[in-house]
Design brief:
By secondary structure, the chain is mainly beta. The chain has 4 helices and 73 strands. The strands form 10 sheets. The chain has a 14-stranded parallel β-sheet with strand order 1-2-5-24-27-30-33-36-39-42-47-50-53-56, covered by helices on one side. It has a 14-stranded parallel β-sheet with strand order 3-6-25-28-31-34-37-40-43-48-51-54-57-71, with no helix packed on it. The protein is globular and about 115 Å long. It starts with 21 loop residues before the first strand and ends in a 28-residue tail after the last strand.
Length: 888
């Protein structure tokens, strides 16, 4: 048996054709020939096959399965009428693979597009052709490719090449409402357009609307059901993901009347005439010499379950409506050194690998994709069996042309790997991942999040409690993570994004050896994250902060909502042998709330470098992040000699400066059974809501407060009882302690207790506060600082503040309160207060001594103080696609 030498990928031309078990395919071939010659013989009686299907069938019929088979594909265009399907019968073995590969120094192109010609002049620069005469009558295609570039379906407003993300939009009519504010009784399929956007269309029923509804997380493309022009109301045929609200951006497409710019086209489904304004405004004769194609084939290559050891090398695949290559439950099938472009639509994936094991994509360039470039899945969650599917040494760019959550690489399942890739120019994440034990390493991701907000270079979530646990994020370089969204009355970038985003209860992820540079919101974000370890990273120049952690509380709606998915997620694997080694999996979600009511715990942040240069940026911003249950220390921090700012909802309890006088803080004033003197209702859900003076078992004195539960489910807000002590004057930038004693009629009851400011329609600020109490009196205390000028939450009209006591129970539980106290405390500097809480007490404030920070060389000089903290050099030379795996 002959042996073949591979240097990561097959280097075209190294293995000479003509070895045994070689077959050839050529556009000049004939499927009646033997396929064993690279070109027709002089008599034209034998030569290569004409189609890959014939070569596949010939390979399938072989009797000798002990040697590798090469199917050499000559240069030229191969138009596929339907997917080429491979099954278990087409498989090779580990020692005898089946290789479909480009002939040396030639470029075969597999296309799922129908070539269009016969263009004639129509109006001005617009040309037309009848696609029915080209075999496409009744085929409604939604993409048009000209000379390898996707063209624009006729639209209003026109695409703005000079401002591709913020320009070229219309905006839903109405008074703007902040995205997180609820608008009751607004459905998901209607909106009003502005008077200046009223158009005349002969076939409004053919229109589609491309819209970013409400949150600017992703878009929808919806067919129009009707348009009521007198009221300027558009009704869609299907719901958008969220309400379409005033100010949301959208455009109409698919109307002949809107074909008014180079690159636009329209297909008349009544006459099957295609109208096209060429991008260079050339005449019809010149256009007919260009390669114009309509993608009509859903897939190009399909590998069905059982297919094994089949590889594709050096091919170009383009013009499929959904997927270029789909592998389902295959084994060690590889796409290598291929070019995949102009593939896909909304909710599509260019290369789709699901189930199976050790399948992958290596050394490919994948670009101009309707949805996601590569999807990796497979593995078994219960047993944590790894699929070992992979995407490596690829260059991926311009994804999400239709679906704005179309990412570079999407990872699900267990034990898959994304390594040594470069990913750029994506509307949202570079890599989106879930599942378990994934490996994300040596990738460079940049210029992503170009069209969406609340996002990151990489992103995951853990709403089922177990997702992403065991994943390693290591030795990556994330930079120029942009973000795009609405702020201060206009759409703009950069906006609201992070580098590494561990969202919604993500737990058990290791983040180490990464370099993260230049993100506006922060360089890493833990959103109620648990059990995550973050070490030996370099974080540089976060605009607002470097590290951010925002936790939930046990009374928050988001915790209660996701708790319904956390419990079955946890219980589906709890106690399974493979999960016993997973970090902190002995803790049930019901036991996650801590004694202070917060959730985040088990996170450890050490040995990192935080380097930035700003008078206003914070090093840390943490909320509901208990220093007793999360560890941050032994980091190197450098703000180029400036102050180190932090923001936290936990405050170190310094010395008491003064006690703030409070009206009826012990509830001794007023008649028993009556509402307490000096207090007022903040929320009274119904006329039956009870808050009264009580003489039974006070903490001290003769009386206390009794506040009964009265949850009103029918109300969307203001549905739990709350009383307040109002108009307290507190000082901006000063620190306070709010305390009180509480008990309840049931054990383990949540009490809400905090200070807040509210100016109707303008601003709300609230301190942390509250906790869980039992049937005996327990002191509940919260420490906080009033926002100071220059801080994000500060407003100059924040003159008065209120103390609120609320009963969030939905089960009829009564709470009792007594001895309410408010004290002003000694105010420490941000950094001193941060350390006083227990964070960064052994950290260094020193210049990390980068080799060339100004030019982005973040290697460390030999005398860097980071090494004294145990910092290990990051192998930057291994990041991104590597030769010989990827060749430009």
């Amino acid at each position: 048996m002959k042996t073949y030498i591979f240097l990561g990928i097959f280097l075209l031309g190294m293995i000479p054709p003509g070895w045994a078990l070689d077959y050839y395919v050529s556009p000049q071939g004939n499927d009646s020939w033997s396929g064993t010659l690279p070109e027709p013989n002089t008599e034209a009686t034998d030569g290569p096959f004409q189609t890959l299907e014939k070569a596949r069938d010939q390979v399938r019929e072989r009797t000798d399965r002990t040697e590798t088979v090469h199917v050499w594909i000559r240069g030229g265009v191969y138009s596929l009428e339907k997917p080429i399907v491979f099954t278990q019968a087409d498989s090779g073995t580990a020692d005898a693979k089946i290789l479909y590969q480009a002939y040396p120094n030639e470029k075969p192109l597999l296309t799922g597009g129908k070539v269009l010609s016969g263009f004639v002049p129509w109006k001005g620069a617009i040309c037309k052709t009848n696609v029915a005469e080209r075999g496409l009558e009744g085929v409604y295609f939604r993409q048009l490719i000209c000379d390898g570039k996707r063209q624009i379906l006729a639209r209003y407003p026109n695409f703005d090449a000079e401002n591709p993300y913020a320009g070229g939009w219309a905006y839903a009519d109405g008074e703007y409402v902040p995205m997180y504010a609820e608008i009751p009784d607004l459905d998901k399929r209607t909106f009003r357009f502005k008077e200046e956007d009223c158009r005349t269309w002969s076939r409004p029923e053919e229109l589609r609307v491309m819209v970013f509804p409400r949150y600017n997380w992703w878009n929808n493309i919806c067919d129009v059901a009707s348009i009521d022009f007198p009221t300027r109301t558009v009704t869609l045929k299907q719901d958008a993901s969220y309400q379409i609200r005033p100010g949301d951006r959208y455009y109409f497409e698919n109307a002949l009347e809107e074909l008014d710019a180079p690159g636009e086209w329209y297909l008349d489904r009544q006459t099957w005439e295609l109208y096209f304004w060429p991008p260079d405004s050339c005449d019809a004769e010149t256009l007919n010499r260009k390669l114009v194609t309509a993608p009509v084939n859903r897939r190009l290559l399909e590998l069905q379950p059982g297919t094994a050891f089949v590889e594709f090398h050096g091919l170009t695949l383009e013009n499929s409506t959904h997927t270029a290559i789909a592998m389902t439950d295959t084994t060690e099938c590889v796409v290598q050194a291929c070019t995949i472009r102009n593939v896909g639509c909304y909710h599509s994936t260019a290369i789709y690998i699901q189930k199976g094991k050790r399948n992958g994509v290596r050394g490919c360039e994948i670009s101009y994709i309707g949805g996601t470039a590569i999807g990796l899945g497979g593995g078994n969650t219960e047993a944590l069996t790894a699929a070992e599917n992979f995407a490596e040494h690829c260059r991926i760019h311009h994804t999400g042309l239709d679906y704005k959550q179309g990412v570079g690489i999407s990872m699900t399942g267990v034990g898959n790997r994304a390594s040594h890739n470069e990913i750029h120019h994506c509307p949202r994440f570079g890599i989106g991942f879930g599942g378990n034990n994934q490996i994300i390493e040596y990738n460079e991701i940049h210029h992503v999040n170009l069209e969406t907000a609340d996002t990151g270079a990489i992103y995951t979530g853990g709403r089922n409690w177990i997702s992403s646990r065991g994943t390693q994020v290591r030795y990556n370089y994330f930079h120029d993570v942009i973000g795009f969204g609405y702020r201060d009355g206009k759409w703009q970038s950069p906006h609201y994004c992070w580098g590494i985003y561990l969202d919604d209860n993500t737990g058990g992820v290791d983040v180490y050896g990464n370099i993260v540079v230049g993100c506006i919101r922060g360089l890493i974000h833990l959103h109620n994250g648990r059990d995550n370890h973050i070490w030996n990273n370099i974080f540089v120049d976060g605009t607002l902060q470097q590290f951010e952690a925002n936790g939930w509380t046990a009374t928050s709606d988001v915790w209660k909502r996701h708790f319904q998915t956390m419990v079955p997620g946890y219980e589906s694997v709890a106690g399974k042998p493979a999960w016993k080694s997973m970090r902190n999996m002995e803790l049930h979600p019901k036991d996650a709330p801590l004694e202070d009511g917060t959730i985040m715990s088990g996170n450890r942040v050490w040995g990192n470098i935080f380097c930035y240069n700003s008078d206003t940026a914070k090093c840390y911003r943490v909320r509901n992040f208990s220093p007793q249950h999360n560890y941050i220390d032994k980091n190197l921090i450098w703000n180029h000699g400036k102050s180190i700012l932090t923001e936290t909802t936990s405050t170190f309890r310094g010395k008491t400066v003064a006690e703030i006088p409070l009206k009826n803080a012990d509830f001794e004033e007023g008649e028993t059974g009556q509402f307490p003197t000096g207090w007022g209702w903040q929320v009274r859900p119904s006329s039956k809501t009870v808050a009264v003076i009580e003489e039974t078992k006070p903490k001290s004195g003769k009386k206390c407060l009794r506040l009964e539960a009265d949850y009103v489910a029918e109300k969307k807000r203001d549905n739990t009882p709350a009383i307040l002590l109002s108009k307290l004057t507190l000082k901006p930038g000063h620190t306070y302690a709010l305390s009180g004693y509480f008990r309840a009629s049931r054990p383990d009851t949540q009490v809400s207790f905090h200070v807040h400011h509210y100016t109707a329609g303008k601003h709300y600020w609230g301190s942390p506060g509250g906790g869980r109490v039992g049937t005996e009196w327990k002191k509940v205390e919260t420490l906080f600082k009033i926002p100071a000028p220059g801080e994000e939450a500060y407003r100059d009209f924040m003159e008065f503040f209120n103390i609120t006591i609320a009963n969030p129970s939905r089960e009829g539980t009564t709470i009792y309160a007594d001895e309410i106290r408010l004290e002003e405390l000694e105010t420490l500097s941000a950094w001193d207060g941060w350390q006083a809480q227990g964070f960064d007490r052994s950290s260094l404030l020193a210049d990390p001594l980068f080799v060339d920070e100004a030019n982005g060389d973040y290697r460390l000089k030999p005398d860097s103080p980071a090494f004294s903290l145990g910092f290990e050099p990051i192998p930057v030379e291994k990041i991104g696609p590597q030769a010989p795996f990827f060749q430009d």
